[in-house]
């Protein structure tokens, strides 16, 4: 039991994820969404492969590698003040994610790693961890967290994972209650100020959006949004709903390519095809 509770980050994220998927389903949110069952499978297999395979493998590989190279430094940061240690875990993770995400959108050779996240025409909680496996294998933040774990910042890694994972789950929720808040005199102003620092559902809906109110080449932040503000990729849409969701480049790939590209990728995609 204690072992299970030490993974409270994963438990919290999984509980919130499945509860929201259930509530969205019961509320009838998916009734008018033409989501084929294969999309659901891709959502859930993506989540399972990162949680049960890729992330544990990265933590193991990082610990073996660092164990060989920096044997004397295992747990070297354990005595660091908690919140300083937390910033050391969280900020590089979030900062590198901004660039990783941006590069994936700006470079055709990286796009197969991330296009799976955008390849569903729906916006809902179940897509929060929908990604090609390469996206997770090369994600700098996971490797960074694994290294910090080796150096002894164990609780900070758990807390950072909980914050990033929970936030990522919540911003993908399919409800749009928040859109009304933007027009309220005081709370609207507060949200608009808040959005300069933290990523909100509205900003991320924009990132998934195409056409009117879509920002497919901007709003790349993970948890913090200040990176977009600093590097000029922020586009505030004031709670407006994008015209539609999906991918700009290429038609639909087979499910196995979406999950495990580059497997099957060359045969099925011409990156120059615009199929909006
Ligand atoms: Zn993206
Ligand atoms: Zn997303």
Structure characterization notes:
It is a single chain. The chain has one domain. Helix 4 runs antiparallel to helix 7, helix 4 (82-106) packs across helix 8 (154-171) and helix 7 runs antiparallel to helix 8. The protein is built from 14 helices and two strands, in the order αααααααααααβαβαα. It is mainly α. It is globular. The longest helix is centred in the first third of the chain and has 33 residues, at 37-69. It has helices spanning 2-5, 8-26, 37-69, 82-106, 111-118, 133-137, 140-150, 154-171, 178-181, 185-194, 201-208, 226-231, 255-260, 265-268; strands spanning 209-210, 244-245. Bound molecules: zinc ion (2 copies). One zinc ion binds at residues 117, 172, 204, 208.
Question: Any key phrases for this structure?
Answer:
1% strand; disordered C terminus; globular
User: What is the residue-averaged pLDDT?
Assistant: 91
The biggest beta sheet is recorded as: 2 strands, antiparallel
Order of helices and strands: HHHHHHHHHHHEHEHH
Tell me the strand percentage band. under 5%
For the termini, the CA-CA separation is 49 Å
Oligomer designation: single chain
Number of domains: 1
Identify the overall geometry.
globular
Strand order of the largest sheet: 1-2
Low-confidence stretches: 270-276
Q: Provide the helix percentage.
A: 55-70%
Q: Decide which structural class fits the backbone.
A: mainly alpha
